[in-house]
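[recover] target loaded
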């Protein structure tokens, strides 16, 4: 860990830096959030939404996070680590932190939360990139669309095959009725 030479760093701070490095490296998606004037009730509601979406939300220490980010290779984060900052990240879904944050801001109409910067699949993205990420459909929606588009041709084929079988049944039924008519006459 690269620390200034003349300062002694406590083991607790080293542990925080290591923990932050681990979180940054394992995150599929993350958003650095500025929060000023957010009520306790709103923070509780936001944490609950993040928990429901399997997103961890943690208030971070800017200096220690800056050290961890530089060691991991996220030099672009340093300029955004000013003022009260929190990190929302997910190890499973790159879109979830941005999407939940956007929904919360829209739902509560709060101006106390601001998106500073984000991380998606190891790349630092600006606030506009986080907004674009939040507008993407979820992984489940994309998979459902993919399965739907794969099913459409199969369903069409089944309908065509059923139509031929149905027509053959009608023809055979007509032949049976004609033979029955001829035998009775």
């Amino acid at each position: 860990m690269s620390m200034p030479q003349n300062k002694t760093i406590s083991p607790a701070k080293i542990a925080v830096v290591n923990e932050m490095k681990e979180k940054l490296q394992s995150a599929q998606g993350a958003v650095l959030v500025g929060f000023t004037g957010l009520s306790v009730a709103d923070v509780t509601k936001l944490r609950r939404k993040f928990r429901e979406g399997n997103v961890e939300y943690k208030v971070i220490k800017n200096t220690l996070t800056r050290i961890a980010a530089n060691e991991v290779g996220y030099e672009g984060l340093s300029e955004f680590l000013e003022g009260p900052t929190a990190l929302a990240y997910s190890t499973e879904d790159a879109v979830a932190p941005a999407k939940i944050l956007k929904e919360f801001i829209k739902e509560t109409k709060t101006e106390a939360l601001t998106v500073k910067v984000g991380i998606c699949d190891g790349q630092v993205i600006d606030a506009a990139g986080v907004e674009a990420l939040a507008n993407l459909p979820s992984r489940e929606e994309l998979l459902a669309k993919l399965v739907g588009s794969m099913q459409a041709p199969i369903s069409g084929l089944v309908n065509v095959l059923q139509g031929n079988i149905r027509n053959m049944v009608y023809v055979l039924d007509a032949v049976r009725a004609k033979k029955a008519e001829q035998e009775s006459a």
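[recover] notes: The chain has a mean pLDDT of 83.
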